[in-house]
Amino acid sequence: MSDTGDRWVRRYHPAPDARTRLVCLPHAGGSASYFFPVSRSLSPAIDVLALQYPGRQERAKEPCLDTVEELADRVVEAVTPFVDRPVALFGHSMGASIGFEVARRLEAAGTTPVVLFASGRRAPSRFRTERVHQRDDDGIVAEMKKLSGTDASLLGDEEVLRMILPAIRNDYKAAETYRPDPSLKLATPVYALTGDSDPQCTLEEAKAWAEHTTGAFDIEVFPGGHFYLNACVPQILGLIKEYLAKRVAA
C-alpha cells in the first residue's frame, strides 16, 4: 500500500474475499474509529475502509485540509488501490459532500461506484450561509452539543477539547465553504439517508440529491436528528447489506 493509503485508510476487520468494498467518510470532527462498529458488523461480507482525515487521533500533528475538494483528492489517491472490485461510498454530513466529490473523481478515472450513501447532508445544490467555523471555542462547542455528535464527557474535558477543536473548526470551514456547481451530476446512484428532525438537512434538501445523479435515486427517512444513525445502527446496516447484495448481483 502507498504511504498515503497507510495514513488515510483504516481496515479494522479486513475482508479480502468480500465482493464489495465500502468506503466510509466521517463527519466534521469525526474520525475513522466512528466506523469501527460498522466494520465489525459488515465483515466478512463487505470490506470496510474507514478514512482517517489529518489533524485527529494518531494524525493529530498533521496539518488539516480545509476544503472538501482537497480532502476528496487525497481520499481518491488513498482508495485507488482498492478499486479492484465494486466500491460503495458512505458519507455522513461533511463526509457526504466529500463522497460526492470522490465519486466524481472516481468516475473521471473510469470507476463508477456502486452507490453513494449520502447521510445527514443537504444536496450539493442546496446552500446555506453558515459561519460556525468563525465562532469562538464556546460557540463551536455549543453547536456540537446541539447536534449531539460528540460524547458529552469529551465536551466537558478542557484538555481533550483543546486537542480536537482545531480539527473540528477546520472541518466546519470545509463544509461551510463548499460551493460546487449546482448542475453537477453523477452516474453513480445516490441513496439519501436522513433524520426526520435534522436541523442541518430538511426532507426537501435530502430529496434534492435526486437532481445530482443520472443513476437510480432512493431515500430513507429515520427518526431522529443530525446523528439519527447512532440510534438506528441495525436498520442502517441492514439497508446497506441488502442494497449492496442486490446491486452487485445485478
From TrEMBL:
Gene3D superfamilies: alpha/beta hydrolase (3.40.50.1820)
GO biological process assignments: lipid biosynthetic process
UniProt entry keywords in alphabetical sequence: Hydrolase
Hydrolase listed as a keyword: yes
TM region(s), chain numbering: none
Coiled-coil ranges from the UniProt annotation: none
Cited InterPro entries: AB_hydrolase_fold (IPR029058), TEII (IPR012223), TesA-like (IPR020802), Thioesterase (IPR001031)
GO molecular function: hydrolase activity
SMART domains named in the record: PKS_TE
Residue ranges annotated for the Thioesterase TesA-like domain, each copy included: 23-244
Superkingdom as given in the UniProt entry: Bacteria
Family: Belongs to the thioesterase family.
Name of the molecule in the record: Thioesterase
Annotated organism of origin: Streptomyces radicis
